[in-house]
Amino acid sequence: MPAYEDSDFGTEAAPQLQQQKSNGQQGTPSSFGQSLPVPGDQQNQQGGFNSIEVPATRNSIAQVDGYMHQLSLSPSMKDRRGSRNSFGASLPIPRSKRQSRLSSVHYADDGKPARPGMPPIQPTRDILASQVQSFESEKVKKAKNMAFVFDIDGVLVHGDRLIPQGQRALEILNGDNELGIKIPHIFLTNGSGKPEQARIDQLSKIVRNPIHMDQFIQSHTPMRALAEYYNTVLVVGGEGYKCREVAEQYGFKDIVVPNDIVAWDPTIAPYRVFTEEERKTSRPRDFSKINIEAIMVFSDSRDYATDMQIIMDLLRSENGRLGTMAEDPVSSRIPIYFSQGDMLCPTEHWTPRMSQGTFRIGLEAMYKALSGVDLERVVYGKPELATYKYADEVITSWMEQLHGEEKLPENVYMVGDNPASDIVGGNMYGWNTCLVRTGVFQGGDNDENNPASFGVFPNVLDAVQTALKKELGEDFRFEWSDANVNPVLSGGKDSSAIE
Ligand SMILES: [Mg+2]
């Protein structure tokens, strides 16, 4: 697998989906009736709301039906638009990635600002920069009214190799431009399976530019919001126990992984060879006495047979209790969430390998075959609406950190290499979309099914420069003439990483 796993390569998006059920019913796992329970607003201890409800993809008829008879269907924007969202159902995303530095300032008794458990606040160079720039020329105003969203693999890197134009594009946005201003940009990937910080450390080294946690969204990042709603969850996918670690960081309270269940009852997975090391590192309990409240597929399954068996056992159980079989397969079914829906993922193999989307289609088919009813499920990641709504939250919060203004820029440019996820999602969300030729897309003037609205570019640098010229003028210069005075660059190129 590539060191920088970004599994949106070769995505074959779903063919036309079927009618959507939109009953908008909400409830707890024990109280819902004919539909998947999607949590309602829950007030946090401070009296605020930590999450936002977003209409979710919730097909009352399993997606598998389309695949069984029309395997050759290719996705088109029209199909996707008709299929993506079932309005009336909703999916929570975090209100913002984290409290912003400005809003997290609490004043202690001595009047000095402090954050519990964290070092004292210092004014960042970024905020100073915004003050220096307060003359607010027309150009600065325009520069503050735009933002970029980058896909990663095929745009900035290939696996763990830099695409050279990616480094230069980020330098320009990090302040090496005639205004010496930072232009907000975030990273939106369907990659998964590692904590955010580990991915960022790896990526920022490759692109030789600083990247902050607050700029980064991978497929399961918005699933952080689900931690508020469920106590005991099954987390599936990823290498070893990395996804358990991710879920812990997201605040999930009681996390079960398939190995814990196999260690408790090896007969549940008859073909699994369970190593001594796996036994030692797992956390078996008596799962016949525990209700698992939801299933979260965070990343690609490393053992389809075991994971599918356990997921199927849980979906068919009475309210997530292993060892039981529900009399009514729908009313007592626990919900299942997937962090993304890509069918295929690039690897060293000559043709892309199956990803979460195909795993899900398999589960839907098995569930239908065994229970006779369709499986409802929810999916995050590009091109699902929840992920784009969450990107708005992240851009807004990043704007506050860069410029001290908590607002969403009007002109957002998505740069991606995959028409079926990056471009279709960006187009539907009203972003300007730029398709680059350094990854998946190798077609003609534009993609036929999902044409990029802002155009097709040889690489990310061309896309960024063209967008900057459109917003800031044809004569806009892509370098800062006096680095000694530049308030952003004079402090070093890591200024965005200040804590
Ligand atoms: Mg890509």
- Beta fraction: 5-15%
Sheet with most strands: 6 strands, parallel
Query: What would the average pLDDT be, to the nearest integer?
Result: 78
Total helices: the number is 14
Neighbour order of strands in the largest sheet = 9-8-5-17-18-19
Helix/strand/pairing category: alpha/beta
The rounded distance between the terminal residues' Cα atoms is 33 Å
The total strand number stands at 19
Ligand roster: magnesium ion
Using only C-alpha atoms, the radius of gyration works out to 23 Å
Give an overview in words:
It is a single chain. The chain is an alpha/beta fold and 499 residues long. The protein is 28% helix and 13% strand. The chain contains 14 helices and 19 strands. It has a six-stranded parallel beta sheet with strand order 9-8-5-17-18-19, sandwiched between helices. It has a five-stranded parallel beta sheet with strand order 11-10-12-13-16, with helices on both faces. Strand 3 and strand 4 (113-114) form a beta hairpin. The protein is elongated. Mean pLDDT is 78; it is low at 1-42, 57-62, 66-89, 97-125 and 489-499. Bound molecules: magnesium ion.
Produce the secondary structure layout.
Blueprint: E1 51-55, H1 64-69, H2 77-83, E2 90-94, E3 106-107, E4 113-114, H3 125-132, H4 138-143, E5 146-150, E6 157-158, E7 161-162, H5 164-173, E8 185-188, H6 196-207, E9 216-217, E10 232-236, H7 242-250, E11 254-256, H8 258-264, H9 276-281, E12 294-297, H10 304-315, E13 336-338, E14 344-345, E15 353-354, H11 356-371, E16 378-379, H12 385-403, E17 411-416, H13 419-428, E18 432-436, E19 455-457, H14 460-472
Parallel strand pairs: 5-8, 5-17, 8-9, 10-11, 10-12, 12-13, 13-16, 17-18, 18-19
Antiparallel strand pairs: 1-2, 3-4, 6-7, 14-15
Helix pairs in contact: 5-14, 10-11
The structure holds magnesium ion.
Magnesium ion binds at residues 6, 8, 151, 153-155, 416-418, 439.
